[in-house]
Amino acid sequence: MKSLAQRRQSAPSLIFVKALNRSRSVSREGCFSPISPEACPLVQSFMCHNRTFILDGHVQLKTGLQTQERHLFLFTDLLVVAKSKSHSHFKLKCQARLCEMWTAFCTEEVCEGSTDPERSFVLGWPTTNCVANFRSAEQKETWLSFLQSRIREEKEKDYPKSIPLKIIAKDVGTCAYSKTLSVTNVDTANDVILMALQQLGINGSEKDYKLWVISGREDAPYPLIGHEYPFGIKMSHIRDAMPHGSKHCACPRQLQGSFLTEQLPQELQCQFVLKPSRLAVCQQLNDLSQKSFKRKRSIINWAFWRGPGTHLDNAPLSSTSAAPGKLFGLLLTAICEDDNLPKPLL
After folding, report:
1. Which residues lie across from 149 on neighbouring strands?
2. Which part of the chain is the Ras-associating domain (predicted)?
């Protein structure tokens, strides 16, 4: 048994060891971690009587070739993405309603370069996809479990559960036409493609077509990978069109009438367009040239497809281009060595 004096002498050293371990932990994280998340001004600004703080943590968000250090704050109905300024101050970058979010594992479709599947998954909200890369497999599993659970619970509380969704078909057949489908809050983009093909009487699968989003909030049409929720994307636009006092609510009861139709202002409308996928068009070109090469679709690819315009007709997805199978007037077989594009183009 140590005497009281001995215990008093050893106390400072124990405090120092704990402080040293804590500082090492912070340095390993490579970012600021809030000492008490609930006391952070950013967290306090989102707290209300029907919202509870759940979890926070550091993450790397990767899109294409870009990697950003971010801090996530999870609430019962919201995910807040922030940039660390200090232990208690964070700059808000974006926020997403959980009922409009999704998770997936197609990391190669979203970012370039290798990612560890044990520590990463795809995290998205209208109309964003990014790879969330965590420090450990345990941290990744914790966040994935909480997010999936909260997204599922918020979708169960969603109102309404289904909405009419107009799908415009372009470059399918000889003319453009549309169908209005009843889409639920758990239907993925691939589900909607299959429903649209059935309603339009078109043969094919979800691999042959892509669903694009056109909205006033985007500079150009946005192609969906397939795991996203079109319901959540459209409802995000509708909720943002609501009066200020209710648009932040997860399920405002005013969501009916003109808000669920195309009677919104042009800048607030959200259109969905069905077009043949780039992979399908590439396959047609390959058949013509009797060559085959593998094309990986990623966030980098569609960034170049988007172009300067805001009309989907500007996106180079049309199967009726003036010179199919050619690049700058030359045949692909003439400029590709070993089925690879020239390095300057890559």
Report:
1. none
2. 161-279
Residue 231 C-beta-side C-alpha neighbours within 13 Å: 25
The order of strands in the sheet holding 209-215 is 177-184, 162-169, 270-276, 209-215, 222-223
- CA–CA distance, 227 with 100 (Å, rounded to integer): 12
Classify burial at 81, counting beta carbons within 10 Å of its beta carbon; exposed 0-12, middle 13-18, buried 19 or more. Answer: buried
Tell the residue number behind the tokens 């040293």, with chain if given: 20
Q: Is the CATH number 3.40.50.800 carried by domain 162-241+264-287?
A: no
167-189 b/e (C-beta count within 10 Å ≥ 16 → b): bbbbbbeeeeeebebebbbebbb
**Residue 223 is which amino acid?**
P
CATH 2.30.29.30 residue spans of the chain: 38-157
The predicted-structure confidence for 117-134, as pLDDT tens digits, reads as follows 999 999 999 989 999 999
Task: Give the closest residue to 42 by CA, choosing from 96, 85, 77.
Answer: 85
| Residues 239-294 pLDDT 10s | 887 765 444 444 444 444 444 555 566 666 789 999 998 765 565 455 555 544 44
CATH 1.50.10.20: does it fit domain 38-157? no
Considering the chain, tell me which residue range(s) the CATH 3.10.20.90 domain(s) occupy.
162-241+264-287
CA dist 298 and 112 (Å) reads 7
In 3D space, the residue among 104, 97, 91 whose CA is nearest the CA of residue 41 turns out to be 91
Reduced to 3 states (helix: H, G, I; strand: E, B; else coil), residue 292 is: coil
The strand pairing partners of 272, in sequence order, are 167, 213
For the whole model, what pTM was predicted? Answer: 0.70
